Amino acid sequence: MNSNVFFESFDRFIRHRLRNVSEYGEKNATSELLKSSILVAFSGAFRIHLAFLLLQLQSNIFTCIAGGLVIYSVYTLDRALGSEEDTVNRKELSGSKKEIGLAASMLTFVIGSYILAKEGMLALAFIPFVTGFLYSKGINIGKFSLKLKGGLGVKNFVVGLTWGTFISGLAGSTCRNIIPIVLIFTFFGVKLFVNSTIYDFKDIKGDTLAGIKTLPVSLGIRNTRNFLLGVHMLSHLILGIALINGILAFEPMIILYSFICGLICIQSYTKSDDEEPPFRKFKRIILVDGESTSIIGLRTIAGALLV
């Protein structure tokens, strides 16, 4: 009798612990889902501020905040909807409560789009949101199917085109000259194209299993690295010429830091390592997603010292 009581108690204890561990893991994964896009959103907001600076316009803090909220919404939506390759590429989100992520995505989008609507730029909020949905899930109407994922470099092209349009559109809404806006679009479009491709290198395994033809998967590591170096150097050369000729604001620190940071990232993070050490991952996050934040910080410090 005592033996049966003991084993029954032990069984209840084990089931209780397993349930608690499962609930903890679910909460932790949900927390990761909600946190995973915060740095990207901050980075995007600062990129919009940088665009204002390069266009020689007064930066609008509300536009920057709204842009950051829309960016958070789009990336959280993508991670909440999930995809086949995410089971390999984002294991830390496994078991998360997707409905919470979807709710957070919709809430931030509504707030961001409301701010942009008051400034007459509501259409710009829907460009990345709709594109993000078409990329993540796509639409199916009868025999017609549209999904912006799977083709050679489509993912990276969509990222560059969407965010280049979004950033240059928000910052250049009051700019009367189209040439500076096109230059800003090119700069940030290429920058985000390169950054998204760099992240693809750590996702080669998951993308290959899912049949997604990213540039590293299709062209190979070396060819993709050389291609990224080429477009990175060309875009910064064009921007440097624009600065010298007064088409954009003379902000050499922004261009020089972006150029050096991009070179380091392309050389250091275009590898297909299965496991990324924590410190290396931290450096990649700072150099890629934290680049715009670093530029603003350095520019502020330099301005204070020169006064």
Automatic annotation (TrEMBL):
<feature type="transmembrane region" description="Helical">
    <location>
        <begin position="227"/>
        <end position="248"/>
    </location>
</feature>
<keyword id="KW-0812">Transmembrane</keyword>
<keyword id="KW-1133">Transmembrane helix</keyword>
<dbReference type="Pfam" id="PF01040">
    <property type="entry name" value="UbiA"/>
</dbReference>
<feature type="transmembrane region" description="Helical">
    <location>
        <begin position="122"/>
        <end position="140"/>
    </location>
</feature>
<dbReference type="InterPro" id="IPR000537">
    <property type="entry name" value="UbiA_prenyltransferase"/>
</dbReference>
<feature type="transmembrane region" description="Helical">
    <location>
        <begin position="152"/>
        <end position="171"/>
    </location>
</feature>
<feature type="transmembrane region" description="Helical">
    <location>
        <begin position="60"/>
        <end position="78"/>
    </location>
</feature>
<keyword id="KW-0472">Membrane</keyword>
<feature type="transmembrane region" description="Helical">
    <location>
        <begin position="177"/>
        <end position="194"/>
    </location>
</feature>
<feature type="transmembrane region" description="Helical">
    <location>
        <begin position="99"/>
        <end position="116"/>
    </location>
</feature>
<protein>
    <submittedName>
        <fullName>UbiA family prenyltransferase</fullName>
    </submittedName>
</protein>
